[in-house]
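Methods, example record. To illustrate the input and output format used throughout this study, we show the complete record for alpha-L-rhamnosidase. The sequence lines were provided to the predictor; the line carrying structure tokens was produced by it.
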Amino acid sequence: MKFNFLKASALLFCLSPFAGAFAQSFNVINLKTEYLQNPIGIDNPTPRFTWQMQDSKNGAKQTSFRILVDTDSIALTKADGKLWNTGWLKSDKQLITYSGQLLKPFTKYFWRIELSDGNKKKSNQAFISSFETGMMNMKNWQGSWISDNENPKLKPAPYFRNTFTTNKKIKSARAYIAAGGLYELSINGKKIGNHRMDPMYTRFDRRTLYVSYDVTNNLINGKNAIGVLLGNGWYNHQSTAVWDFDKAPWRNRPTFCLDVRITYDDGSVETIKSGKNWKTALSPIVFNSIYTAEHYDARLEKEGWNTADFDDSKWKNVIYRSAPSKNIVAQALHPIRNVEEIVSKSLKKFNDTTYLFDLGRNISGVSKITVNGPAGTVIRLKHGERLYPNGHVDISNIDAHYRPTDNTDPFQTDILILSGKGEHSFMPHFNYKGFQYVEVTSSAPIQLNQNSLVGYFMHSDVPVSGNINSSEPIINKIYTATNNSYLSNLFGYPTDCPQREKNGWTGDAQIAIETGLYGFDGITIYEKWLADHRDEQQPNGVLPSIIPTDGWGYEWGNGPDWTSTIAIIPWNIYLFYGDEKLLADCYENIRKYVNHIDETYPTGLTSWGLGDWIPVKSKSPVELTSTCYYYADVVILAKAAKILGKKTDYEKYTALAKKIKDAFNAKYLNKETGIYASGVQTEMSVPLYWKIVPEESITLVASNLAKKVESDGFHLDVGLLGTKAILNALSENGYSDVAYKVAAQKTYPSWGWWMENGATTLYENWPIDAKSDISMNHIMFGEIGAWLYKSPGGIKPDPEKPGFKNVILAPHFVKGLDQFEAKHIGPYGEIISSWKRNVNGISYKVIVPANSTASVILPKEQNLKVYLNGKAITNSTEQLESGTYNFDWK
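The corresponding predicted structure is encoded as:
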């Protein structure tokens, strides 16, 4: 009989003396520490706690709360927290930073939240969550950094193993592992965890990450074995490409440090650690490159290598190594996983040695093949996004920047050599690719069927926090493709593409930040990546165009249009989460960056940047677009100064923003005609979007933009920067119908044109047959995903009450759509904005989560009156408490 935990829990709850009262009360859900659920291995001595109030009653709100923290969960349900008791705080906040007794390393803490609502009712149940500290301090590491040698050119990946014996009853056990490179950890023959590609990529010589695991159930009483397999990752980049990662200053043979901390029932603690008593040997992974592929020789397998009884007498001794950096910190973020298994949509057999698998969609990740064949049979799995006319895989669109020194490292081509010992399954350990098609070729005949190969969509496994659904299929396809590209480019940092580069291009990421935050709960990834920014920033404030970097990108591709990530991303995190921490952490970095531009370009105009990257046809002045981004950075800096109580800075940068705005408009705006520069789409929309246009000119400039778009046949004529601006500039200034015509366009150039031609992701270039810049999985044109939430959905954060404490709801009932629904889970819960055309007019349903409010800006529909829950209203804006509301235009 299978025990149903959920049913049992429900039964226990129903039997609780509080159950009857609680059913009439409210719930507290989504308790998180550092935006993670019950995390272990937290280093932050002052972690943040967040929660949500679940109550569907109209006007439901939290009026006060109390948090208790203790190391004893049972005591916490009955008494006050010994380590922290906030007392009852009259507050509607759902975010608080711990300020109790000093947290100790390697300790599990429990926190209890109690709420009181607007009716003075308190929650009738103890809502408890937990978190566990990790090392907290570098001095707490006991293990040594070890490796097998110091030859970065050695290709096979190394195995490491050690055995130990436990004779006492184990209460709990944790494994802490840091690495230069990538690793897979196993205990007693079983891989620990379901993460991929740990630890996340950082500037290894400045910050190295460690990961924590609960391994209590993996240990046995008696003899145990620990195994570690190391991969190169970005630490030991052996493939050669234009960015010179093979010459990185940190490059070396992979290395790791491990502590397994065992707590016994008698209270004693033992740490099993990496050191000279470990043994090492080369693995069957004869080559691994995060950039190209992985090669595996199954004939070299060492069966049972990570089990206790394996004979390692012929293995070599390890060597000591220095740590990659002096800053080893916890990896506190959503990990990379094989999130989705995708079965092959079709299989084409060319002959007995050549097969083509089609997954039916473009993904980032890996393939897994299951095959049988004679020993020594060499199987090549070539991954690509498109096909030649003859049906074979074409990678010419994605290997443009690869500079191989020989033919031993083919691009996106895994190589498997069979052992001849029966059916074998192979999936790369330390690599991922961007692909839809896999061409399998073998040196001897093999038999494959459609089930012989599956794909795994790999990415940072961030929770979904939004959804869009409409009556227009092309819009739904664009939204899905945008999300596919966003996730395909999220690997512990945002990338540009999952195949050709895998680089953290700042420009792509600042364009896609809102799209990402509307659709996914990605704060942990961005906080990590902005720490990478802080690691990479030069003393004078300059940032590289790709982050992390080996040193490439300080001389090309950076500038305010790209590296405004340092300001734009912390600001958007503040807007979406209502959390000041990242803004505060990056404040000095933003200030240094702005000061550098101010010193270098004292007129207020800057020509530093790449400009409107990959435009359709019209080219705009770099000075125009870069100055707009410079202005945006200064405005953000001034706002941040005000929020953080830096009055002098607020005044200084408010004045600088005015100086930039005046200089910009004096040069580029013809006030009589309302035209910027030559009047092309980017030149008109970017100033509107970043609100550098003088108040008195906005109406005329927006009108001219709409006319320009109409004269362009409601097609795009923008590049990267214009794409961020064009739809928003139209929608925010009275031309949402024009914006929608562009968004839903199905002919070239448009997003819909890609969909009409079979795209399942977003492309890098508008023409499908372009000769260069033709990755088929880029996020850089992905602002349309955010626009769908902001314009037809109308969901926006309120800068005065960020984190969707007050939701701005300003939907646009655009012509051409019969139905549209946007959902977003913010810090207070799920926001729903849903409208539908009917026989009488338009119905609009709004759900505002508990403990938040909404300002509904009501569209004017000609000859239609507005009703709220059946009652006629005349206001242009309605202020709503939490709850469900129905508006009708009829």
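Annotations derived from this record:
Residues 1-24 have pLDDT under 50 and may be disordered.
The first helix runs from residue 5 to 15.
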